[in-house]
Design goal:
CATH superfamily: Vaccinia Virus protein VP39
Number of helices: 12
Helix content: 25-40%
Number of domains: 1
Distance between the termini: 27 Å
Strand content: 15-25%
Largest sheet: 7 strands, mixed
Order of helices and strands: HHEHEHEEHEHHHEEHHHHEE
Strand order of the largest sheet: 3-2-1-4-5-9-6
């Protein structure tokens, strides 16, 4: 995990990246653990999901490398914060009952090392990830305006089969996948959450809180925004994509993955 990038993305992170109740409910159902269980939240960010699960009376170990992120966390009696990465989790062997990873997988520096660490702290699972595989979704209009950022996602996010095979530790675990089309009113405003509201990309805070935009070449962002501005003003965007404004969801390739024995 890159602390510099996390510190940049993390500035005023809670302005856009808030927990979404639908994501919480799905993760909770997939974990299927009794109240009081110990859960490791890897790449916990500012702790929105950590606190949500703490509210459900789980004991959460929030692992996060960015001091900027950790400093924005709201303290919770059931959450313990740890400075660490997926590749070096500061927890003892077999010390948690479950692991969750929410939109953090693309920041891992080594999926293999992360899988070894996850297996070490939770050898039976369950492990639940919420992530993106752009190969599994529909091509978004975003690609027309920010093609290089979209292309980078194919490098940042490995295929879900690769993720599952690696985390399954040579078939020690089984796995199941659950697609998650993005709803039109998602609270956790990730890069593709504005699929029905292109105007949101003009908000610099929104762009900063999404890793794809935060890491992108400034010139590409400016060029894409200028083209998008012109197409919105001329009506060309709405001619092509205006139907999305009334749609309830869009499948961009987001999904849940559960692994365990």
């Amino acid at each position: 995990m890159n602390k510099v990038i996390y510190n940049l993305i993390g500035l005023n992170y809670n302005a856009n990246r808030r927990e979404d109740s639908r994501i919480i409910n799905i993760i909770n159902g997939l974990l299927d653990l009794p109240v009081g269980s110990i859960i490791a939240d890897i790449g916990a960010g500012t702790g929105n999901y950590s606190n949500a699960f703490a509210d459900l009376e789980y004991n959460v170990k929030a692992v996060e490398p960015s001091e900027e992120m950790r400093n924005q966390a709201i303290p919770h009696k059931n959450v313990t914060w740890l400075d660490g990465t997926a590749e070096s989790i500061p927890l003892p062997d077999n010390s948690v009952n479950g692991v969750m990873i929410v939109l953090a997988l693309h920041h891992f520096s080594s999926l293999t090392k992360a899988s070894e660490e996850i297996y070490r702290i939770c050898p039976k699972g369950p492990v639940v990830l919420f992530t993106l595989d752009p190969r599994c979704g529909n091509e978004p209009w975003f690609k027309e305006y920010f093609p290089e950022i979209y292309r980078q996602d194919f490098e940042s996010f490995p295929s879900i089969d690769t993720v599952a095979d690696t985390l399954a530790m040579n078939n020690k675990w089984s796995w199941v996948m659950k697609p998650f089309p993005l709803p039109s009113d998602l609270s956790d405003k990730n890069l593709y959450s504005a699929w029905n509201e292109p105007e949101r990309y003009f908000d610099p805070q929104f762009r900063q809180n999404t890793s794809g935009m935060a890491k992108a070449d400034k010139k590409e962002v400016e060029t894409g925004l200028e083209k998008l501005k012109n197409d919105l003003e001329s009506g060309d965007w709405d001619k092509k994509y205006g139907y999305l404004r009334e749609a309830k969801e869009f499948d961009a390739g987001f999904l849940f993955l559960k692994l365990g024995r």
